[in-house]
Every structure is written in C-alpha cells, then in structure tokens.
Amino acid sequence: MKNMLMLVMVTSFLASCGNNAAKMEEEIAKAKQHTLDSVKTVDSLKAIAAKQQKTMDSLKTAAAEAKKVRPAYADASSGETAQPQPKKKGWSNTAKGAVIGAGVGAVGGALIDKKHGEGAIVGGLLGAGAGAGTGAILDAKKKKKAQQAPIKQ
Q1: Which of 65, 81, 83, 95 can pair with 91 through a Cys bridge, CB separation 3.0 to 4.6 Å?
Q2: SS (H, E, C) 104-134
Q3: At what angle do helices 116-148 and 93-112 cross, to 10 degrees?
Q4: β-pair partners for 74
Q5: Nearest Cα to 135, choosing from 95, 103, 82, 89?
Q6: Helix (H, G, I), strand (E, B) or coil at 98
Q7: pTM, rounded to two decimals
Q8: Other beta carbons less than 10 A from residue 107's beta carbon
C-alpha cells in the first residue's frame, strides 16, 4: 500500500512538472519573440534617426552655402549693388487708434444715449479723438526710440 501511494505521488508530481515545463517553454518563446521585436524596433528607430541626421546635415550645408551667395539685388554686370526696395509701412498708431476709438465710441454712445444715432455720432467723434491722441503718443515714443538706437551696418 505504501508503495502504491508512493507511486501515485511520484506520478502526479512528474505529471505536474511536465505541465509547468510546457507552460514555461511557451512563456520563454513569447519572451524571445518580444525581445526580437524590440530589437527590430530599436533598429528601425536608429535608421530613422540616421536619416534625420543626414537631412539636418544637408540643411545645414545648404544654409551655409546660401549665406555665401551674393544678394539677389546685386547687379552682376556692372558690379554695383542696387538699393533694396524699402519695406512697406502699415498703418501708423495714430490711424489705428483713431479707427478703433471711433468704433468703440460709436458703440458706446449708441448704448448710452437714448437717441441712438446722435449718441453714436458723438461717441464716435470723441472716441476717434482719444484714439488718435493715444496713437500719436505711441508714434512719438517709437520715433524717439528709433533715433536713439545705434545704426547697424
């Protein structure tokens, strides 16, 4: 009886070990595949990084060559350089202030006064005056700052 009990225990032990071994082998195979996939991913990322580095190098080279090229407005035949076109100026701060002030003043005057038309006219005129005055102050400060700045050559 003891021998029989011992035989059943050893058999069940070996059977249980066999199932675990199969599961472990399966897990090991999955881990190996995961590792291979990770290595492939790293390799592809390295290839992408190398391509990006080549692109950056070519852009830096192109930028360096572009700096060496003469300006487009230079006259190649006479050797003289033409004057570059002056930059177009936008609205002055005075004009912007007058327009914005007139709009805000007209809306405010129409809302405040019972006679909406008259209130809009009066508010627009007062707002335009205030806005133009504020813009003129900003223009004067900008002009003074430009005169004080050193001239770049």
Answers
A1: 95
A2: HHHHHHHHHCCCHHHHHHHHHHHHHHHHHHH
A3: 160
A4: 81
A5: 95
A6: helix
A7: 0.40
A8: 15
Residues 58, 51: Cα–Cα separation, whole Å: 11
* Location of structure tokens 């032990």: 13
| Phi, psi (deg, nearest 5) at residue 150 | -70, 145
- Identity (one letter) of the amino acid at 91? W
Q: How far is CA 96 from CA 26, 38, 53, 62, 127, in A?
A: 76, 60, 47, 41, 12
**81 secondary structure, DSSP code:** B
Q: Which residue has the tokens 């060559």?
A: 65
* Exposure string for 79-100, b = 16+ CB within 10 A, e = fewer: eeeeeeeeeeeeeebbebbbbb
Sign of CA dihedral 112, 113, 114, 118: negative
Instruction: Print pLDDT tens along the chain (153 aa).
Output: 777 777 777 777 666 665 666 777 788 888 888 888 888 888 888 888 888 888 888 888 887 877 776 555 554 555 555 566 777 678 888 999 999 999 999 999 999 988 889 999 999 999 999 999 999 999 999 889 888 877 665
| CB 71, CB 81: distance < 8 Å | yes
